[in-house]
User: Fold this.
Amino acid sequence: MKIAFIGLGNMGGPMALNLLKAGHTLSAFDLSAEACKKFAAEGLPIAASAAATVAGAEVVISMLPASAHVEGLYLGSDGLLEKITPGTLVIDSSTIAAATSRKVAEAAAKRGIAAIDAPVSGGTGGAVAGTLTFMVGGSEADLARARPVLEKMGANIFHAGAAGAGQTAKICNNMLLGILMIGTSEALALGVANGLDAKVLSEIMRRSSGGNWALEKYNPMPGVMETSPASKNYAGGFGTDLMLKDLGLAQENAAAVRASTPLGGMARNLYAAHSLAGHGGLDFSSVLKLFQKP
Ligand code: NAD
Assistant:
């Protein structure tokens, strides 16, 4: 299949490489010359612009930071939807507002283009290993078309509902993730302040009722888990500012449906304070720093 891939960041780059390895013909682009250079060196064919990637593409995939980037890419008089051939399938895997996904899907439908939202979970490790979880919003028929492509990048594919539903599921998941990373950090910092060994305490909690994904796969304390961003000076991974964006989306969403999400609101404020302290570019597990002596 001919696939256009736009957005070669921490997630998009490895996802595109998995499609290439699966035998698809790729044409990729990122606004960052550095990202293009990095993945060109791994064999990914790079186009001169986003518009150039879609020529002849049967599927267009985007993996961008936030709503504004996705709107800017697809909509407007010079947007990509004007250049994509009718009949093409668009898969946006960015985590953005459900309302923006619906707007893109509606504009695409008017041009005879199918579009689904397919945000992911599983982190950069999942993107590299091809074991991501996809949460899809769109029609059953469009998901059936997307499935063979998604299966090369992920291990779990869920149909959450109509356009935008994938984003809603993703926001619920990330609100929980943001909260549990703070709780895990708080508990570890308390133990260490009492003289406990972080590795020993992590293992005790992992195998007890406090066990969770952070303790299993993404320990926030440097040195406990060799593979986690914490052990790499919080480089790469899932940026604090991206988590802040997701928690903001969750709060907007909660306000729209008058849901009560007090811990989600508290988590957003703690990540905002962490970002203001200059840590927005670090992996989100660096929120541990809020509970440690500088
Ligand atoms: P990133 O910042 O590493 O990468 C985003 C890339 O998009 C950058 O390289 C940027 O240059 C590029 N870009 C922005 N606008 C562009 C445009 N108009 N055209 C082409 N390229 C453009 O972000 P990431 O960590 O890869 O995350 C991407 C999305 O996936 C975000 O919405 C994030 O919330 C979500 N996500 C991330 C993770 C994670 O662990 N990093 C996990 C799940 C979901």
